[in-house]
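Reading a protein record of the kind used here takes only a little practice. Think of the row as the fold of the chain written in a discrete alphabet. A record is reproduced here so that you can trace the correspondence yourselves:
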Amino acid sequence: MTTREFQGVELERVREHVWEIPREGDMRVPARVLASEALLERIGDDKTLQQLKNATQLPGMTKYAVCMPDGHQGYGFPVGGVGATDAEDGCISPGAVGYDINCGVRMMKTSLSYDDLQGREEELVEALFANIPSGLGGGGVVEGDVDTVEAVLERGMDWALEEGYAVRDDLEHCEDEGFRPDADPDAVTQKAKDRGKNQLGSLGSGNHFLEVQRVTDVYREDVADSFGLEPDRIVVLIHCGSRGLGHQTCNDYLRRIEKEHGDLLSDLPDKELAAAPAGSDLAEEYYGAMCAAINYAWVNRQLIMHRTRRVFERVFGRDWEEMGMYLLYDVAHNIAKKEVHDVDGEEKELYVHRKGATRAFPAGRPEVPKAYRDVGQPIIIPGSMGAGSYVLRGGEASMAETFGSTAHGAGRLMSRTQAKQDYWGETVQKELKTQQKIYVKAQSGATIAEEAPGVYKDVDEVVRASDELGIGDKVARTFPVCNIKG
């Protein structure tokens, strides 16, 4: 089959796993969907394809807008979407970054084996839930004031290091060493700062979680060895973002764009794509505010990791260093970065928007931490709490195909409202424990229902497509042991 059509959007097959929506009408560039046949069926179920077409109308959009294998409908710009706009003549779009700026994941490796945990799962999940703040509203590891928030926004993980919440190794194994130099705390509103000051070191709610996992499979032993992964080892995965501060920042700039650049907005098919022209004062201010929120999110995950180390110390009676609890990597999912990419044989500076997509730079790129530069950047792709997650490494084809990007997770199949109608949280929790030995603790049964395994796509299929496309190479698989949620 060479063409497919979903809800009036026609796609042409370019090659295996690559589908193109040809340029037509007001589209500035074509759009591409990277998915297997099975995943394409799911992507075509909602408004993802129309949103992807809409995204091609953003000023300065380059080459093509791309949807990753885990893509699904979002606000304006699809989740799993990547769009690169010219940094001089294009735009930057808060809508193409998302409300949870630098929502991302970090994985901490350990020297513990699954045997070390067996029989202590209940104790561990209770201790983690009691000590890692989660849920809506305030409460964090650090009860900060405005000065604290200002320092975090400006300095990122450097602040955590100076305050004793991080060690130098943590910075060396974080994307951008946990610091965006373009951060401008003054561009973040007081309302956003006030929302953020009591949430530093908290998971929040929704699909955010902390999960203790065991490594079940290794696919590339040399790369896994470089990452410090081997079968049966315990790892900890943390998924959260910039909390209320990031949400408020996105909202503030969307409203400002409506007032200051209504002419640009009126030319776009969806106001949720709201963008500021590159070079404008508003574009520079948003970029500074976004980078500051990125710094905040990295510190947020670092504080959760710091508290997790303390919990493990109390449960197992050993120092975290003795248990080898070091950061493997931290990757951002909702972000726009100025990056230089080859476009039709010419090096161009672009705003690369990744909304629910992971940077996936291959070996040799200077942006990859020194520890991984010879093998490629680690990529962490969470599945659902009843399925495996994966560690990949940046694939050689990613630079040409996706502006150095790949998927960020399994991708939702079902709305939260539908999930609560189809699943009962306590039943899901009991089945996970009795059938799969997965211990889950959450603020409410509704949260568990919203995140039930059946709500998500097949993460194995998402990773297979990424691996076969060469944009993210499969390295290892992990499986849940304990999970806490807001």
Summary: The two ends are 44 Å apart (CA to CA). The longest helix spans residues 281-316.
